[in-house]
Specification:
About 20% of the residues lie in helices and about 10% in strands. By secondary structure, it is of the alpha+beta class. It has a 3-stranded antiparallel sheet.
């Protein structure tokens, strides 16, 4: 997508007006591993926003930054959050509609074969 697409669409990244507003009123406060940029209003620190690196999809912002964007933490995650624990996995964007979508055993997309019933179920019948 070229510059013309960003002028007329918002789903492929920040549009012209968002970039202009950000340049005038925003102060960059951080970046995440995915390359998303996080901003705070110069005059009103409670106003916060993100410019995504790629398509605009809120699930692409990590949970720590989601907390900052919603005002649940005052400082940026690097300073306000405890360090990640060894067992924590990195967050994933919403994978619905992609080839990476979770498909449990028995779903039609995975062949539609379910394990046989175990016989522990008894249907209710009225007395």
């Amino acid at each position: 997508m070229g510059l013309l697409a960003n002028i007329f669409t918002w789903w492929n990244g920040a549009g012209f007006t968002t970039r202009r507003f950000t340049k005038r009123h925003g102060r960059e406060v951080g970046r995440d591993a995915a390359g998303n940029l996080y901003y705070q209003h110069k005059d009103d620190p409670k106003r916060r926003w993100v410019i995504y690196n790629g398509a605009n999809d809120a699930s692409r912002a990590p949970p720590q930054w989601q907390s900052w964007l919603r005002g649940q933490i005052d400082d940026v995650p690097d300073k306000a959050m405890p360090p990640a624990r060894a067992f924590e996995k990195p967050g994933l964007p919403n994978l619905s509609g992609t080839g990476e979508t979770y498909r449990p055993a028995g779903s039609l997309a995975r062949g539609g074969k379910r394990a046989a019933a175990t016989g522990d179920y008894q249907a209710w019948t009225p007395d």
